[in-house]
Design goal:
The protein has one domain. Helix content is 97%, strand content 0%. It has 2 helices and no strands. The model has no long low-confidence stretch (mean pLDDT 93).
Length: 118
């Protein structure tokens, strides 16, 4: 009978030890899961921050593209105005050259009148 009691206590002690090992393994697994969950949370936060950064950069690029479009439009208008001013200046120069040519021809005609040659 004492032997049976000792055997029962030994089995109980083994089950308690097995339960302790299982509990320790569960605790270790839980700790590892908690660490993985924390890593996942940090990665998620970093990903969210990077997405926000990309969104801000994309918005900044869109703003810069709009500024560049406006600057190109302003430059186009300035080019048109410059070409128009150059055309006006060339037209005025041409009119002056034509006037001077007409004046030269008139002076030649006055200098070489056939009546004066005789």
């Amino acid at each position: 009978m004492a032997e049976v009691e000792r055997e029962k206590r030994e089995q109980t002690r083994r089950r308690v030890e097995e339960d302790r090992v299982i509990a320790e393994s569960s605790r270790t697994t839980s700790e590892h899961s908690r660490e993985l969950a924390e890593d996942a949370r940090e990665l998620t936060e970093r990903y969210r921050q990077e997405l926000e950064s990309v969104r801000r950069e994309r918005e900044a690029l869109r703003d810069l593209a709009e500024e560049a479009r406006r600057a190109a439009e302003d430059a186009r208008h300035a080019t048109i105005a410059t070409v128009a001013a150059a055309a006006d200046a060339l037209s005025a120069d041409l009119a002056q050259m034509q006037f001077l040519e007409d004046a030269r021809n008139t002076i030649r005609q006055l200098q070489f009148k056939p009546d004066d040659a005789q």
